[in-house]
Amino acid sequence: MSTATTSKEKVAQVILPSELLAHWQGHRTLTRKVIEAFPDKDFFEFSIGGMRPFSKMVDELLSIAGPGIQEIVTGKAVAFTEEVAHGNSKTKVLELWDKTTEDINANWSKIGVEKFHDTIKLFGEYEGTILSSIQYFIDNEIHHRGQGYVYLRSLGIEPPMFYDRTEA
Amino acid sequence: MSTATTSKEKVAQVILPSELLAHWQGHRTLTRKVIEAFPDKDFFEFSIGGMRPFSKMVDELLSIAGPGIQEIVTGKAVAFTEEVAHGNSKTKVLELWDKTTEDINANWSKIGVEKFHDTIKLFGEYEGTILSSIQYFIDNEIHHRGQGYVYLRSLGIEPPMFYDRTEA
């Protein structure tokens, strides 16, 4: 098996598992900056056009990312819930964000490159492959963060640069 | 070479070039629906918080996608311009969108799987790999389209479902 593994690693790949992780965590670093940019009150209350406040979108991201990767790794389906116990404290949200960062990193290495096309039914509900699920996690985060940018602009606050994925 | 190619294809990959293309075109199909959802006047004029109208964001997407892939395939740098000749006609924008869809498809097969980690300086300015450039194209589109969703909601218009990437 080790020879096969070695030969696998040497074969050209569009993206390596480690690169996909870095890509996602880079986006998560930027999303963290967007959370930080919101005044506390506006994070939990400000909205446009009847949409959710940014905090509720972040609850969704937190509910998907950590539990999603855990389910991918363990194969144990858990029911999806967007209830996040932060007690309307942005500090607590950021703590949960950082905890999720660690959880994703800890679980990621358990997803072998040969697993990404395995089919799963995430949260007992969403059918796809491990790859399509992770793509959804990332894309959904970019989508809602883009909405957070409009909220910030509407509040007269300059958002972080879209391409800045480095930690502050 | 054909044996090597065959063995390559059989090796486990996170994502195949053809899958990355389908992922991007799926997103582009959704963005097309968002363009269609805007009333003509609002597409070119409506904005929030001093941001660009959605048409200007779409100009940016059109300026990046087709020319970007062409530069990736030909290696010939072209200066970046966001001037798109649509004469403030949404019909013309949609025509250019569909032309870009064809251009991307036509060029994509010329990017071999072994090319994605090659470094490039896109539009003579943006350094990265072919992979990171294409990831930027996709992510930037999701980001701005998410902003378009807020514009639509603010206009009282229901946007298309985020997960619906199929053609109408």
UniProtKB/TrEMBL annotation, chains A, B:
Q: Which residues bind a divalent metal cation?
A: H144
| UniProt GO molecular function | metal ion binding
Keywords on this record?
A: Metal-binding
Q: State the family it belongs to.
A: Belongs to the DinB family.
The molecule here is called Damage-inducible protein DinB
Q: What is the lineage of its organism?
A: Bacteria, Pseudomonadati, Bacteroidota, Flavobacteriia, Flavobacteriales
